[in-house]
Write a sequence for this structure.
């Protein structure tokens, strides 16, 4: 039996009762990362045979979803993702998911202006605090915009997620229709493998370019985190953080006392993010820690906000770059593997910042079916999506060096990128560049 929270419209009901509110053809929103519901998801999967074409939006799914596992042919539920995790990628490969192309910082506006209204929003949150708020944990993102467009709002409360301070990082009980009890399992972890020798080499090159007082954005992956590892032992002081994702590398840098945020213009002294994923230690470090602030994604990711801090340094991975400087970071040909995320917005925001720098990093080679291939290529793999256009790319880094493409002609770009490709591929790349007139006959620099 449901019961009403005193003085509000919110009712406490069971997960089964909440799942019973879903009808065929509805739009549901599961939110992103740590906010995706588990108890509700399992209860809804039990109703699969009764439903048709229930459409669910999500992002960075950290655990298998019961509704997808219960419906392998996609007759009952369909999954839409705004950025792929490993699980989302597998389901996309199986035809069970579809990607929605986005700049992450624009997503709140998409919900408010362009997307179909949400019939039911279901978010996992921390338990209601003394002020009547359900904290989103380390997953602020665009959840406020979803709530604005949702006809019905359900929260699944848990003791398993960390509580993270920040602006608009939660919803008030007066905005909630139903409350269900979660399973209280610990927050899902994102594996953080140790850096490779190539990661360390790239990390050293980038760390050497970072100055005292720089404000860092650290992307996902071994190379950006390797930069943090290098900075722990370098001499830079008063580093700041204004980032999309909070990573274990940032936490280690914070523990080492290298982050003060003293020179930040926005949120001085605070580590600002819009979501965090990592180890148990990351979640322990941020729980109710006032040094960390979780903001909506339109605050962390829009370039006109990013640029307000001086000396912004953005560090992101890519998977392939062509000789003109186009960075493809989200697909392998026509196979989608991740998403645009915030890469392009931070590249632009960092460049617009006074003294700012953006770094796109990649290993020089990769192995495919036992064959070693160059990530620096004459042209992108057919079907590859350009994440950061050639006009926006600034520094490109491999284990063999750094190339700054700003202010360079096509021929100069080609030369600079060939110079940081793996030595085994340089001769072939130069020959291709000449054959395709990227480098004219007799071309010389300076």
């Amino acid at each position: 039996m449901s019961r009403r929270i005193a003085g509000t419209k919110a009712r406490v009901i069971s997960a089964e009762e909440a799942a019973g509110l879903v009808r065929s053809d509805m739009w549901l929103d599961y939110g992103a990362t740590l906010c995706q519901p588990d108890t509700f998801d399992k209860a809804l999967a039990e109703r699969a045979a009764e439903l048709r074409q229930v459409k669910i939006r999500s992002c960075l799914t950290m655990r298998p979803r019961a509704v997808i596992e219960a419906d392998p042919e996609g007759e009952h539920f369909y999954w839409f993702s705004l950025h792929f995790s490993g699980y989302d990628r597998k389901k996309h490969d199986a035809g069970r998911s579809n990607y929605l192309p986005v700049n992450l910082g624009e997503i709140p506006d998409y919900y408010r202006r362009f997307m179909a209204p949400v019939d039911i929003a279901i978010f996992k949150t921390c338990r209601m605090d003394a002020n009547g708020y359900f904290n989103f944990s380390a997953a602020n993102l665009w959840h406020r915009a979803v709530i604005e467009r949702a006809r019905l709002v359900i929260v699944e409360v848990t003791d398993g997620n960390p509580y993270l301070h920040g602006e608009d990082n939660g919803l008030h009980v007066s905005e909630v229709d139903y409350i269900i009890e979660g399973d209280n399992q610990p927050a899902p972890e994102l594996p953080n493998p140790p850096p490779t020798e190539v990661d360390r080499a790239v990390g050293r090159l980038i760390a050497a370019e970072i100055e005292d007082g720089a404000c860092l954005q650290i992307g996902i992956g071994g190379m950006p985190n390797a930069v943090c590892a290098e900075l722990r032992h370098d001499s830079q002081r008063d580093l700041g953080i204004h980032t999309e994702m909070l990573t274990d590398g940032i936490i280690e840098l914070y523990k080492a006392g290298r982050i003060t945020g003293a020179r930040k213009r926005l949120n001085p002294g605070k580590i600002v993010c819009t979501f965090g994923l990592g180890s148990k230690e990351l979640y322990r470090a941020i729980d109710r820690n006032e040094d960390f602030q979780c903001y909506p994604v339109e605050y962390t990711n829009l370039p006109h906000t990013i640029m307000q801090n001086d000396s912004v340094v953005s560090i992101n991975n890519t998977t392939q770059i062509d000789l003109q400087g186009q960075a493809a970071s989200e697909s392998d040909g026509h196979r989608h593997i991740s998403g645009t995320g915030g890469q392009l917005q931070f590249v632009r925001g960092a460049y617009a910042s006074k003294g700012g720098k953006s770094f796109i990093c990649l290993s020089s080679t990769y192995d495919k079916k036992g064959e070693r291939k160059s990530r620096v290529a004459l042209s992108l793999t057919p079907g590859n999506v350009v994440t950061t256009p050639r006009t926006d790319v600034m520094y490109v880094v491999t284990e063999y060096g750094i190339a700054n493409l700003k202010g360079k002609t096509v021929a100069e770009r080609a030369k600079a990128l060939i110079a940081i490709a793996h030595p085994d591929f340089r001769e072939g790349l130069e020959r291709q560049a000449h054959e395709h007139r990227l480098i004219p006959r007799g071309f010389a620099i300076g």
Summary: The first strand starts at residue 3 and ends at 4. The chain has two domains: 3-181, 197-435.
